[in-house]
Amino acid sequence: MRYILLTLGVLFASPVAGDVALTVDLGPTDQVTAGTYTCGAGETIPVRYVNAGPNALAILPVDGEERIFVNVVSASGARYASGAHVWWSKGDSAALEHTIEGTVSDCTRDDQGPDTGQ
Q1: Cα separation of 24 and 22, whole Å?
Q2: How far apart are alpha carbons 84 and 97 in whole angstroms?
């Protein structure tokens, strides 16, 4: 059995910061894939996708911090949400949206990895 360990920096109510580790069991049909996208004015964004049974995640940096996006309902492609941010992907295209600010950065996949959109 394979495992993926995600380490998150968390600031608790006390002034002490700590790390939280999240372990996701990966079965024989589950997978972790990675891709690199070029967005907006040439910004490169590395993305890791975790597909483990009912858990579908996208992990990517936003504003200098690594964020975990959770898969949510989408009519087409794969849609992931983290706070006010939404990551949409389908085939070689993706978009990073800030739902409060109303900004969208269109992205194109640079590498030829497996299709992660649905």
Answers
A1: 7
A2: 8
Which residues neighbour 61 within 8 Å (Cβ) at sequence distance 6 or greater? 45, 46, 67
What tens digit of pLDDT does each residue of 74-95 get? Answer: 888 899 999 999 999 999 999 9
Rounded to whole angstroms, how far apart are CA atoms 107 and 39?
4
- Does residue 112 carry a pLDDT above 70? no
What digits encode the pLDDT tens for the residues 24-37? 888 899 999 999 99
Q: Measured between alpha carbons, how far is residue 52 from residues 5, 17, 26, 101 in Å?
A: 13, 29, 6, 32
Number of neighbouring beta carbons within 10 Å of residue 58: 25
The domain 29-109: what is its CATH number? 2.40.128.200
Domain positions in the chain: 29-109
Alpha-carbon dihedral of residues 5, 84, 79, 42, nearest 10 degrees? -90
